[in-house]
């Protein structure tokens, strides 16, 4: 059974509805407190979710998210089914960091955070006291104690949670599985053409570093600019702050037809988009965990230029499956772009890219971990 | 009739031949003998005795009088006021203006017959000799004539006369017939005043505050009079004065900048009825009386504003601070809280059980909640992992009516999700930290009480049973408490001690030695005896707790109750211990650190400290010696 949360209204106020099939259930609920991940309607948990558990009697409940529903869900599984295994896949640093789980400090500079503590966190959020953060940590940990296995798609994230206090023995690294597809051939080049077709996949927000990316293109020498192109497959610029939008729009204006904005894409379209791409660029200014686009790029045999931090640096090996640039440094990225259009580098990297974990294998690894 | 001048002239002539220290050479003159109503007499005159430092006066019955046998002789109660008579100095050409030759003898007259010169005499004594002074006929005297001979009296002497009259005649002195009464506007030609607040607390008294501008000291007395004609003490003497620059500025040239125009006073009136009309009685040194009606606020159970009004002009830095606290602020605050308690009566208690009732509990934890209730969730989440809570009666006392409507559903949800049983006790109002604990204790069914603050979080399960086991071997056990640390691990509590605060009139304040230092720097032992321990986490036997009457509810807004309890027990021989191996987190709220800002709460804290010092100062001296 698959349970996903939605913010859409339900049938006459019911907690659940189905979508696609009767095995896919939508949970119409919400959180009232994003600091402590408190359910906004706790009856949904101790009545409706409890009833669902009692009827279905799962032996394993695997959480991918608690945000938007409430951490109490985990508590409730233990309440109702004390012998049920609880698995939680960690996708970001939500438990550690109150700044949307990014481990990036609030403020314009978006400084990277290396370690949390009540006193440090209260400095990021002056309206809260260290005691508030202490209580937050104690509260989340007491819920996390109920989890049998934590799954993380990166070692980097495991290290961060280990430093925070989760026992290493409870954590397993399993990469996200990919559909089995045939690797498309490199993009055919016209006579004299370079490997200059770059692409960005993802949300356009300050954490993803699109601004760094555009600045880097802007810094390229004129002759290089003639030979390269950037395709941006992403959306949501319009919901960002006016300052950020203005910054991006100005860079886009400067770059003219060097950049094409394609908007969002469906996951099944990814193959076709990859075929038209030479390089993927992941310029995130935050740590990332294991961005799915990395495995997607590798699945389609495309090398990646990425920020040299966090999950990106772990998954993409510099000079083997991609190229690292100094995170947040447009000039360094520009240099790496300039160097990469040379076909030789492209070819050598492509040869070393391995097929990522398949969905089937990923599932087997999960079964092993949970058994 | 012979004039004083003539007598003086005659006396002066003989002056050079007088032997030294001869009582016979004292020159005495009676100016007047008067009756003050039916109960008092006043004899005024002068006695010139430059060679004798001091003489004394007596007023007795004339034994030679034919009716003396029938006079049913008793002692006559009297008081003598000596006063400055510059006219006497002048006529004796005597230059020392400090000598006081004048006298006024005020006596009780409790006899059925009229006073007369043939029945009474005044005798002057010096060493073992004496001199009898014949008196004049007694005439009714009242109003202005009372002060007729006081032209050259110094103002403090007139004041003394008024005071003596007041103390002997009582408040009726202001009602003596013939006293000159002036309208307020006449009085305002000499002095200015305003009352900012008049707080009437039925059955207790009145707190007044305002200002008075009387730099020339025109007034002999200010009294507050209630409907039933009970009078306050004289506020000229019995009030706190403090600088009011705004008043000085509003009346330029009227008073020096050092003049203290501000005034407040607590007036005890145990018979004050609700909505009694109140009057202010001003008495000038010339005996002129002005009566004004005053508007009061009738204090009820909401005492936040009144207590702020009591404290607003009270300044701890001032030298008279202790005296003002003892005389005015302390009694006024006590009255406010007493009155509130009386008005509110016994709390109507609600009990809510969340989760199953614990059968045969081993201990009862009492946690008052005020201002913030999410701590309940944080505690319950931690208690959920502790098997001791299967045998623990957990009692939350909601002490904040504002929270009620959100709190009860919150408890419901929390108990549905976290399998720890707890009770909620709600008294319908704010009872204060002590009151809330005392109320909670009434619902405790075990003898092992644990008083716990809501912002305490255990560091590991099992603390309850471990502390209980450890306390069995402690001698003369009163209270036992664990080590408490802040969220950063530094020491919050390792026992409580006391420190004298010279900046606050040598009050004893509680202190937590080692607070804020990392644990490795603190001197932590397994068992440490301490003069007192914090109320944030206290283990005590319920019977012992009840034996000393629980926490004292006269401390206001939560302060000093814990040390008060410990000292009560200490005075009975019980000892208190801190267990250094047991650690709980105490997220002591910053707002409790009142000594940082001198606001209203800070003054309340000092009030508590003052009460605490009054009660325990001596014992503390012994303990910290």
UniProtKB/TrEMBL annotation, chain B:
Keywords assigned: Glycosyltransferase, Transferase
Gene3D superfamilies: Spore Coat Polysaccharide Biosynthesis Protein SpsA, Chain A
InterPro entries documented for this protein: Glyco_trans_2-like, Nucleotide-diphossugar_trans
Every Glycosyltransferase 2-like domain range: 364-481
UniProt superkingdom: Bacteria
Record's keyword annotation contains Transferase: yes
Family: Belongs to the glycosyltransferase 2 family.
Name of protein: Glycosyltransferase family 2 protein
Species in which this protein is naturally found: Shewanella jiangmenensis
């Amino acid at each position: 059974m698959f349970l996903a949360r939605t913010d859409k209204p339900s049938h006459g106020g019911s907690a659940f509805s189905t979508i696609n099939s009767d095995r896919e259930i939508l949970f119409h609920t919400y959180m009232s407190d994003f600091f402590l991940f408190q359910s906004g309607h706790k009856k949904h948990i101790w009545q409706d979710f409890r009833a669902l558990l009692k009827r279905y009697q799962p032996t394993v409940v695997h959480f991918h998210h608690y945000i938007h529903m409430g951490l109490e869900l985990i508590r409730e599984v233990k309440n109702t089914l004390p012998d049920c295994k609880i698995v939680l896949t960690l996708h970001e640093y939500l438990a550690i960091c109150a700044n949307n789980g990014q481990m990036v400090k609030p403020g314009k500079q978006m400084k990277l955070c290396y370690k949390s503590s009540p006193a440090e966190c209260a400095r990021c959020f002056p309206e809260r006291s260290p005691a508030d953060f202490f209580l937050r940590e104690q509260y989340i940990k007491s819920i996390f104690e109920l989890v049998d296995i934590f799954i993380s798609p990166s070692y980097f994230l495991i290290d961060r949670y280990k430093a925070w206090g989760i026992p290493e023995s409870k954590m397993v690294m399993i990469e996200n599985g990919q559909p089995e597809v045939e690797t498309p051939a490199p993009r055919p080049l016209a006579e004299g053409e370079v490997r200059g077709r770059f692409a960005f996949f993802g949300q356009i927000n300050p954490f993803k570093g699109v601004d760094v990316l555009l600045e880097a293109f802007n810094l390229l020498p004129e002759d290089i600019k003639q030979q390269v192109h950037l395709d941006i497959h992403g959306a949501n610029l319009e919901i960002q702050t006016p300052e950020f939008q203005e910054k991006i729009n100005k860079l886009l204006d400067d770059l003219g037809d060097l950049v094409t904005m394609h908007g969002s894409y469906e996951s099944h379209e990814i193959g076709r988009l990859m075929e038209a791409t030479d390089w993927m660029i992941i310029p995130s200014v935050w740590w990332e965990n294991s961005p799915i686009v990395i495995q997607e790029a590798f699945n389609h045999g495309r090398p990646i230029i990425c920020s040299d931090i966090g999950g990106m640096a772990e998954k993409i090996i510099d000079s083997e499956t991609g190229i690292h640039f100094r995170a947040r440094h447009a000039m360094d990225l520009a240099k790496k772009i300039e160097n990469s259009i040379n076909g030789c580098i492209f070819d050598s990297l492509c040869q070393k890219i391995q097929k990522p974990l398949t969905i089937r294998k990923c599932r087997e690894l999960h079964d092993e971990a949970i058994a | 009739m012979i004039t004083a001048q003539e007598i003086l002239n005659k006396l002066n002539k003989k002056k050079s031949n007088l032997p030294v220290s001869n009582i016979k050479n004292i020159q005495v003159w009676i100016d007047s003998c008067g009756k003050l109503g039916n109960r008092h007499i006043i004899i005024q005159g002068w006695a010139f005795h430059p060679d004798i430092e001091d003489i004394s006066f007596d007023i007795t019955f004339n034994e030679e009088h034919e009716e003396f046998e029938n006079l049913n002789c008793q002692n006559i109660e009297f008081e003598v006021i000596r006063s400055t008579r510059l006219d006497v100095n002048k006529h004796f050409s005597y230059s020392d203006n400090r000598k006081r030759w004048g006298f006024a003898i005020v006596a009780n007259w409790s006899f059925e017959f009229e006073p007369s010169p043939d029945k009474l005499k005044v005798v002057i004594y010096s060493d073992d000799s004496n001199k009898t002074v014949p008196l004049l006929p007694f005439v009714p005297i009242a109003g202005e004539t009372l002060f007729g001979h006081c032209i050259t009296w110094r103002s403090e002497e007139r004041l003394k006369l008024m005071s003596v009259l007041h103390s002997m005649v009582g408040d009726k002195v202001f009602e003596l017939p013939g006293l000159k009464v002036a309208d307020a506007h006449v009085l305002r030609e000499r002095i200015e005043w305003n009352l900012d607040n008049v707080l009437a607390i039925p059955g207790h008294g009145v707190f007044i505050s305002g200002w008075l501008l009387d730099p020339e000291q025109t007034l002999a007395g200010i009294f507050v009079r209630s409907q039933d004609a009970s009078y306050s003490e004289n506020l000229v003497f019995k009030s706190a004065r403090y600088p009011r620059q705004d008043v000085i500025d509003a009346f330029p040239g009227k008073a020096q900048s050092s003049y203290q125009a501000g005034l407040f006073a607590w007036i005890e009136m145990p018979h004050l009825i609700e909505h009694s009309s109140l009057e202010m009685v001003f008495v000038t040194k010339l005996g002129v009386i002005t009566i004004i009606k005053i508007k009061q606020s009738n204090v009820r159970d909401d005492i936040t504003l009144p207590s702020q009004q009591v404290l607003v002009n009270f300044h701890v830095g001032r030298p008279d601070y202790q005296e003002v606290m003892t005389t005015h602020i302390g009694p006024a605050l006590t009255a406010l809280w007493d009155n509130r308690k009386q008005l509110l009566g016994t709390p109507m208690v609600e009990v809510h059980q969340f989760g199953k009732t614990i059968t045969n509990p081993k201990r009862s934890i009492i946690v008052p909640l005020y201002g913030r209730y999410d701590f309940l969730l944080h505690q319950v989440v931690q208690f959920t992992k502790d098997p001791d809570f299967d045998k623990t009666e957990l009692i939350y006392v909601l002490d904040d009516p504002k929270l009620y409507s959100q709190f009860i559903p919150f408890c419901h949800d929390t108990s549905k999700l976290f399998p720890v049983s707890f009770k909620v006790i709600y008294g319908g109002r704010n009872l204060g930290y002590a009151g809330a604990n005392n109320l909670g204790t009434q619902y405790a069914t075990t003898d092992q009480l644990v008083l716990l603050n809501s912002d305490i979080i255990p560091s590991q399960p099992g603390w309850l049973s471990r502390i209980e086991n450890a306390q069995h071997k402690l001698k003369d056990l009163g209270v036992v408490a664990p080590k408490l640390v802040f969220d950063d691990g530094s020491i919050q509590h390792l026992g409580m001690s006391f420190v004298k605060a010279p900046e606050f009139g040598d009050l004893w304040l509680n202190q937590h030695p080692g607070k804020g230092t990392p644990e490795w720097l603190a001197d932590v032992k397994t068992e440490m005896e301490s003069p007192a321990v914090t109320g944030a986490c206290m283990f005590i036997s319920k019977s012992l707790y009840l034996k000393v009457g629980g926490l004292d509810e006269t401390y206001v807004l939560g302060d000093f109750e814990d040390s008060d309890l410990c000292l009560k027990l200490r005075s009975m021989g019980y000892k208190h211990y801190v267990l250094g191996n047991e650690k709980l987190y105490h997220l002591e709220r910053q707002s409790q650190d009142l000594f940082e800002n001198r606001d209203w709460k800070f003054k309340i804290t000092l009030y508590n400290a003052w009460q605490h010092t009054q009660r325990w100062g001596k014992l503390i001296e012994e303990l910290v010696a």
